[in-house]
Amino acid sequence: MNPSQPAPPRSIPEQVAEQIGAAIIDGRHRPGERLIETELAAGFGVSRGPIREALRILERRHLIEIQPRRGAYVRSVSLNSIADLFNARMALSGLAAQLMAQLRPAGWLETLRRRIDELRAMASRRDVDPLDFAYVVTRAVRTIARGSDNALVVDVMANLADQTVWTTIWKTPLDYLTASSRRESVRRLALVLEAIEAGDGTSAERELRSFLEDDRDHAIRVLGRLRGEKVDGFRLLHAHPSGRGGPEKLRRRRSAAG
Q1: Which CATH number is 12-74 given?
Q2: Fewest Cβ atoms nearer than 10 Å: which of 102, 108, 168, 172?
Q3: In Å, what is the CA distance from 89 to each residue of 84, 121, 156, 209?
Q4: pLDDT band at 250, cuts 50/70/90?
């Protein structure tokens, strides 16, 4: 796999699926609502073919159910299930950081440095789109997964992105809304990189999990407000509660749980 290989362009069905999915996640399309192909085609200005493919993508991500001769209906996606998804990705990412620190593969380390440099350049720009910043953060975490040389971790994380609501979640601005929050994210990812470069897998895993835990809590807080929904507090677990953050981190966790 080439570390510098660019992501392929998204097709029209993929773009449509992302927009419909975002409307499901933030509550604009409610559970049980029927999605009518002709109305969607008119709304997006495309034929019914791309709409049908977009609906199949959404079905694979468990956002809708397609019933024969009845049509497509929005499935219930709870805030608890979204928190569970964050936690599954976080556990895999932490493992990947530990493995990458042991291996220190030159190509993937250079790619991770470039990702962090890209984020650093974006961090203070006033015109930066938070969604673009979130996308590069995701690419940085994906680089760590690939640098772990664990094909199963890479495959499972890819499947979580392709067959769950993960990609769709980030089509709504959930984090990185201010220059200060973006700079703090860069600082914390740089700590992960430093630990990996030093071969310190324990610190790499701790720093990455701490960063991703706070990302999760913020995203759940925003989605909870949009959806008028609360999450079970135990799902906002912190693997290193005695680490950076202390009482303030506990307050944020309780706030995210509502």
Answers
A1: 1.10.10.10
A2: 102
A3: 9, 26, 9, 10
A4: very low
Note whether 16 and 50 are within 8 A (CB): yes
Kindly give the residue spans of alpha helices, DSSP state H, lying in the chain.
12-25, 37-44, 48-60, 79-103, 106-123, 130-147, 151-162, 166-169, 179-197, 201-227, 246-256
C-alpha–C-alpha distance, residues 40 and 49, integer Å: 11
Name the β-bridge partners of 66.
72
- If one compares 103 and 82, the residue with the highest pLDDT of the two is 103
Q: For residues 43 and 127, what is the distance between their CA atoms, to the nearest angstrom?
A: 28
pLDDT tier, 242 (very low <50, low <70, confident <90, very high otherwise): very low
Whole-number Å distance between alpha carbons of 39 and 37: 6
Separation of alpha carbons 25 and 144, rounded Å? 27
Whole-structure pTM value: 0.78
Burial of residue 32, with CB atoms counted within 10 A of its CB: 0-12 exposed, 13-18 middle, 19 or more buried: exposed
Rounded CA-CA distance 140/189 in Å is 9
Q: For the chain, which residues make up each domain, given as ranges?
A: 12-74, 79-256
